[in-house]
Design brief:
mainly alpha, 2 domains, 8 helices
Length: about 375
């Protein structure tokens, strides 16, 4: 195999290694994105507490108004005064008779002891008492009934009036204290009710906001659940197609490696990129010379992943990785756009391939066909 054919062959191998590396990287990213999809979690909102309505306070007892002057009591006492006057007038001769009757009785007994048989003193005394009682009764009816009734009635009136004045004064003091306590309790209750109404208004507003937040969050969860399902379906189908494309690319690369044109130790992206760089740079013209340079410089142990070091040590590998990075970035941007259109309903879920990915697959299929047709020439 001359130098030109070797360069062409190595270019095909490097290109397929780069494509396999790109497909594996893309597959890992899709798997990571698929694993990162989690069920949306509903947000937690604190339900506001309903304020407690103040208990209506127990109002103080209103004092009882004293009874007005009852004239019936005065009339009763006037009647009792009149009867008392009559009784008193009639009681005088009775008292007189009770006082002098013992003396008359002694007198009559003395008269009997000396031989007298008449007892005029007793009859005279009794008759005199009766006569005096009759005259006293007439006198009481004529002169004592009215004054007695008026005097007793006036005295009772004065007593009742004095009691009423005292009760009325006490009632006014109790009524004033009652009004003070009533107003104090009533004002406190009204203030509590106003605060309660304000708290109820704030509570209703907070509850309405709570219900609105819960509803919006439920809608968000539903939308995210649907979108996640679309993303999951999109990524699964894209990953399934990517698995198929990766296997086809690896099969093409295995076909290129058949015949062990390149020593198996160097059948990897780092080794073939280094060998391809040596051939293109004119540092060697055969694979054996390239192997010697590679071993001499011990680059297999220096193939680090930082781009600046790769750029300084292996230009060809750096160019491959940089190209792959740009292709990956374009594919990811295209995937995000097509996924957004699917989520928004502007594109069907079955249409899972982005424009960039489709173009890349078409180009890869074309290269696989070309490399398949050319590999027999080198083997």
């Amino acid at each position: 195999m001359d130098t030109q054919d070797l360069k062409e062959y190595l270019g095909m191998v490097v290109d397929m290694e780069a494509n396999c590396h790109l497909l594996e990287t893309l597959k890992q990213e899709l798997r990571g994105e698929l694993a990162s999809i989690q069920a949306p979690r509903p947000s937690t909102f604190a339900l506001p507490s309903r304020p407690v309505e103040p208990v209506k306070p127990k109002m103080p007892s209103k004092p009882k108004m004293p009874e007005r002057l009852n004239w019936s009591y005065v009339l009763v006492y006037m009647l009792l005064g009149a009867l008392g006057s009559i009784v008193l007038a009639m009681a005088v001769p009775c008292i007189f008779a009770l006082i002098f009757f013992p003396f008359d009785l002694i007198w009559d007994l003395l008269a009997l002891s000396i031989g007298h048989t008449n007892f005029p003193a007793i009859s005279n005394t009794i008759g005199l008492c009766i006569e005096i009682a009759v005259h006293c009764f007439k006198f009481a009816l004529k002169y004592a009934v009215l004054p007695g009734a008026v005097i007793v009635g006036f005295m009772e009136f004065c007593k009742l009036h004095t009691d009423f004045e005292q009760a009325d004064c006490k009632y006014k003091e109790e009524l004033s204290e009652y009004n003070r306590k009533y107003n104090e309790v009533s004002d406190n209750y009204k203030q509590s009710m106003r605060q309660f109404q304000s708290d109820i208004t704030a509570y209703q507003k907070a509850k309405k906001q709570y219900q609105l937040s819960v509803q919006e969050d439920n809608e968000r969860v539903q939308v995210e659940t649907v979108n996640n399902e679309k993303r999951r379906s999109f990524l699964k189908r894209a990953l399934g197609d990517l698995e198929k494309r990766t296997e086809e690319a690896k099969k093409c690369l295995r076909d290129l490696y058949k015949g062990d044109i390149i020593f198996p130790k160097y059948q990897n992206i780092i080794g073939v990129c280094a060998i391809y760089e040596y051939i293109c740079a004119g540092r060697c013209s055969t694979l054996g010379e390239a192997y010697n340079i590679l071993e001499m410089e011990k680059r297999l142990d220096c193939m680090i992943t930082q781009l600046e070091s790769i750029r300084a040590n292996q230009y060809e590998l750096f160019k491959v990785l940089q190209t792959n990075q740009q292709i990956l970035s374009d594919i990811e941007n295209s995937n995000r756009k097509i996924l957004q259109r699917i989520i928004e309903g502007n594109r069907k879920l079955d249409d899972i391939q982005s424009d960039k990915l489709s173009s890349y697959y078409e180009e890869l299929e074309r290269k696989e066909r070309d490399y398949k047709n050319r590999k027999d020439h080198f083997q």
